[in-house]
From TrEMBL:
Name of protein: Integral membrane protein
Transmembrane regions listed in the UniProt entry: 20-37, 43-60, 72-89, 101-123
Claim: Repeat is one of the keywords in the record: no
Pfam families: DUF6113
InterPro entries named in the record: DUF6113
This protein's UniProt keywords: Membrane, Transmembrane, Transmembrane helix
Organism expressing this protein natively: Streptomyces xanthochromogenes
Length: 135
């Protein structure tokens, strides 16, 4: 006979699982940035909307998956590092981003999306009830 309680089902993940989750989110952020960099210029303006929607979806999913606001930091870091690396010109003279408005909208829109996803509500403070305390 098992004496499992409700607390056993809501265990926190191990440290190794959390590290793997955040590392996976960084990789996904890099992939979304690379795909978005190619799509936003190919099908303007629909590609720009699609690229930003992918970034917003990943950032918001990171917060929901980890259950914390810090969950947007890992994919946003991967996204930002990849975008910065893709904006640098190479010795051959090629680079992914052009000097158009779509490229700047993708860069700024992705950063704004990360900030918005990090600041949206819906999370309770640890150890506190969900209701507001006091007036």
């Amino acid at each position: 006979m098992s004496t499992r309680t409700a607390m056993d089902d809501t265990r926190t993940p191990s440290r190794a699982a959390r590290i793997a989750l955040y590392a996976g989110l960084v990789v996904l952020g890099a992939l979304v940035a690379a795909a978005g960099a190619l799509v936003q210029a190919a099908w303007f303006p629909g590609g720009l909307v699609l690229a930003l929607a992918g970034a917003v979806g990943l950032f918001y999913s990171g917060t929901q998956l980890t259950g914390a606001r810090g969950g947007v930091g890992a994919p946003a870091a991967g996204w930002l590092i990849t975008v910065v690396l893709l904006t640098a010109s190479r010795p051959e003279g090629d680079f992914v981003f052009g000097a158009g408005m779509g490229s700047y909208a993708f860069l700024l829109g992705g950063m704004v999306a990360a900030v918005i996803c990090a600041t949206i509500g819906g999370f309770t403070q640890p150890g506190a009830p969900a209701a507001r305390l006091g007036k």
